[in-house]
Amino acid sequence: MSENNIEPPLQGDQDHQNGTLHGTHLANGHAESSSIGEEEEASSQPDTQILLPKPADVLSNEILPGRRKSLSAIAFRAFLLGLSLGISALVTISYLRAGEQTWRIPFFISALSLFHFLEYYITALYNPRFANVSAFLLSQNGTAYNSAHTGALLECVWTSMIAPDWQTRVSNRKVVVLGLCLIVLGQATRSTAMAHASTNFNHTVQQHKNADHALVTTGVYSKLRHPSYFGFFWWGLGTQLVLGNSICFLIYTIVLWSFFSQRIRKEEGLLVTFFGEEYEKYRARTIIGIPFIGGNLI
Asked: How far is it, in rounded angstroms, from Cα 73 to Cα 80?
């Protein structure tokens, strides 16, 4: 990004100016001294010109409104997610202290807000080349994704208002604690995986191997070969345990398992093409961590 340019007068131009003034012979000596005086007064005031940079010189077109890295769109989404997280967290704590059964509803909104914020934040921090507006994953996962979360909220509202006893039975304290542990485990694993993979992580399956594409086998990837999928799978199921959603827990399990089963099969086929025997050996010594996917029981 260029700063404002302050251009001093060119030395050659100034010398030329001076030579003209001193070399002029005037019949009237008073006029000559007056010209010299004007020259000295002019020379005491620096001839500066401030050139304001054009927007195209300062800003990349990608960060302008309406573009894929639009700063206004990113700021707006981050603000809304932060506001949502702050308000829903405060309401959750308030409801818990008051013994309200409906504390699970704002808690789920808190978990969703934090998840989507971290998706963009980790990408921007470790893989800024792909820190687009879509990295928030607010609408990029399709209608099924948004419908699943909406259904989960509706089931939780219904059981909290209409059948609180049923909700308490299926989501007692032990189940809630288990759900919270899965949420923390899932979020931490996914965020850590995104950070560790850095520029090798992408929200979209890459169909072609890039020149800088490397197989990451260290850190969390030394045990799990798809830790981001592992993280979201258990995060999603954990939220339903906390909400006490029997129906959505079953739906989440089926839908998430089907989605990751197909995606991992496709992705591993591409990775074998990219890395050949290196990936085959890596796959043999790691697990996926999602039941019955890729020949692993866990």
From this structure: 11
In terms of Cβ atoms closer than 10 Å to its own Cβ (0-12, 13-18, 19+), residue 291 is exposed
Q: What is the mean pLDDT of the chain?
A: 84
Q: Are 4 and 53 in contact (CB under 8 A)?
A: yes
Alpha-carbon distance 184 to 114, whole Å?
11
- Give the CA distances from residue 202 to residues 8, 84, 135, 194, in Å, rounded to whole numbers and listed in that order: 48, 26, 9, 8
Closest to 137 measured CA to CA, from 151, 153, 149: 149
Reference 151, options 264, 60, 255; nearest CA is: 255
4-28 per-position pLDDT tens digit: 443 343 444 444 444 433 333 434 4
Place of tokens 């302050």: 6
CA–CA separation, 37 vs 270, rounded Å?
80
Which residue carries 């971290």 as its tokens? 118
DSSP designation for 296: B
Q: What is the mean predicted confidence (pLDDT) over 45-62?
A: 60
Cα separation of the two ends of the chain: 50
Residue closest to 119 by CA, chosen among 179, 76, 77:
77
Taking residues 233-261, report their average pLDDT. Answer: 97
DSSP-H helix ranges across 44-142? 55-58, 71-98, 104-126
The predicted structure's pLDDT at residue 7: 38
What is the per-residue DSSP string for 55-68? HHHHS-GGGSTTST
User: Is there a contact between 251 and 154 (Cβ–Cβ < 8 Å)?
Assistant: no
